[in-house]
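A reminder from the course coordinator: this example appears on the midterm review sheet, so study it carefully.

Given structure:
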């Protein structure tokens, strides 16, 4: 259960229930879930409406109905590979809000609607069955995921202080007219899907007491732009990482990585580049990161 009464609003009542079932004689695990919860997406780029007490609406809007989530999961072993699937239907879920805009009302200022989501993932390890043996490394793990979301219905679309709908109204839509239309470059679309994958080979005792690994990661939005705030995928957008990790004496860990961005944009007739990103131009976000950790 979440919260308590604050400023005259009862914030308690979040709850959920779930169960798992393994049918006899199989390695399948089925999960069934139901939740009612207060949307807590920060939407930090949505400026607070005037008069909202103590900045609470910056994170939580008490005017929204609780999101109702119906979920199903399946885990299964096939060919020595672990497979997983999660399906959800979320009623009155938060939708992407027009960035950098001031809401017009104190309460109920976030758009919401009904959304389907699905994820399919797998984990495979070195060896047979699995991803197979190789003389190129001593051990390896491969993980991959396909994510999908679809908008069923927009049930609440308030106006911003500028008088435009909060959802999908010129939200990076320089090539379109926004409004209730979908499919313009940079706009939220009715459906979207994307992929991500990580492969990490490992070499043991390269030097005495030192194991090396080389994590490789790649993600890409394949089609459409997600209506899920912050966590969805946009077509042509994503990231990639490559680097090296050293585990020393099972006590010290050193990581050196390069993190880059996949980037999609078009140039308008005015000569201005238009990004398909949710928030802005990601083309200059490449960076090198070094991390050192010690365990006692």
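Designed residues:
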């Amino acid at each position: 259960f979440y919260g308590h009464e604050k400023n005259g609003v009862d914030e308690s009542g979040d709850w959920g229930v779930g169960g798992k079932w393994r049918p006899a004689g199989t390695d399948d695990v089925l999960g069934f879930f139901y939740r009612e919860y207060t949307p807590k997406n920060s939407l930090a780029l949505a400026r607070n409406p005037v008069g909202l007490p103590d900045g609470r609406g910056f994170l939580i809007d008490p005017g929204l109905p609780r999101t109702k989530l119906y979920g199903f999961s399946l885990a299964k072993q096939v060919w020595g590979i672990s497979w997983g699937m999660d399906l959800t239907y979320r009623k009155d879920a938060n939708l992407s809000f027009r960035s950098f805009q001031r809401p017009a009302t104190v309460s109920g200022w976030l758009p919401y609607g009904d959304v389907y989501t699905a994820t399919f993932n797998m984990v495979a390890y070195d060896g047979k069955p699995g991803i197979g043996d190789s003389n190129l490394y001593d051990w390896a793990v491969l993980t991959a995921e396909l994510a999908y979301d679809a908008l069923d219905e927009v049930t609440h679309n308030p106006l911003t202080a500028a008088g435009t709908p909060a959802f999908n109204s010129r939200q990076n839509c320089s090539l379109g007219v926004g409004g209730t239309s979908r499919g313009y470059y940079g706009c939220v679309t009715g459906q979207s899907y994307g992929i991500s994958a990580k492969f990490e080979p490992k070499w043991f005792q390269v030097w005495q007491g030192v194991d090396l690994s080389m994590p490789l990661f790649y993600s890409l939005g394949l089609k459409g732009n997600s209506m899920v705030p912050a966590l969805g995928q946009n077509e042509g957008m994503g990231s990639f990482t490559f680097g090296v990790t050293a585990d020393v004496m099972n006590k010290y860990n050193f990581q050196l990585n390069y993190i880059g961005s996949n980037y999609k944009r078009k140039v308008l007739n005015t000569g201005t580049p238009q990004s398909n990103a949710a928030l802005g131009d990601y083309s200059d976000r490449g960076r090198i990161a070094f991390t050192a950790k010690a365990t006692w």
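The longest strand covers residues 139-156. Confidence is low (pLDDT under 50) at residues 44-58, 174-184.
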